[in-house]
Structure to design on (168 residues):
């Protein structure tokens, strides 16, 4: 999965909150440090992805208010209910990952989106009896080392795999 663009938020429905204040990004998906205008690093993106995951797990919007000002105040407040409070089917391991991504202090978050993704993959493998696609590919390669596979790109980015049959 790739996140391509969060877009750029523009204030709607009223005067700007403060003269000269600009916001880059969707307001409901900002980290508090972004809303304050602090210097940002990768952990602000981890926080934004954490909001998306929280919303996917709970089926609710996390910080969205009735207007832009209320939304920003919600972001700055940083009150994040635990996903299991809203979705009892949410595994505790997933909740720990979501809450780490949404930590108020950037130093308590995953340092990069790659670390966040790795934690999700490990959780899925350990707690959901599934394995990651690279694991399956490695396992199949050990079973059939003499086989070769070719991948050909089809129109619109679809891929197909043609395997060379084993002799004998």
């Amino acid at each position: 999965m790739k996140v391509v663009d969060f877009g750029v938020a523009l204030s709607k429905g009223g005067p700007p909150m403060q003269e000269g204040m600009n916001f880059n990004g969707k307001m409901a998906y900002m980290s508090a440090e972004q809303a304050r205008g602090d210097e940002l690093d990768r952990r602000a993106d981890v926080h934004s992805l954490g909001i998306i995951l929280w919303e996917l797990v709970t089926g609710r919007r996390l910080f969205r208010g009735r207007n832009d000002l209320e939304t920003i105040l919600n972001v700055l407040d940083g009150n994040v209910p635990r996903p299991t409070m809203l979705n009892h089917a949410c595994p505790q391991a997933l909740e720990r990952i979501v809450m780490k991504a949404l930590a108020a202090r950037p130093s308590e978050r995953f340092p990069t989106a790659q670390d966040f993704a790795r934690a999700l993959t490990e959780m899925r493998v350990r707690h959901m009896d599934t394995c990651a696609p690279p694991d399956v590919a490695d396992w199949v390669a050990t079973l059939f080392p003499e086989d070769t596979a070719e991948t050909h790109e089809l129109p619109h980015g679809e891929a197909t795999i043609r395997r060379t049959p084993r002799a004998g």
In short: The beta strands are 149-153, 159-163.
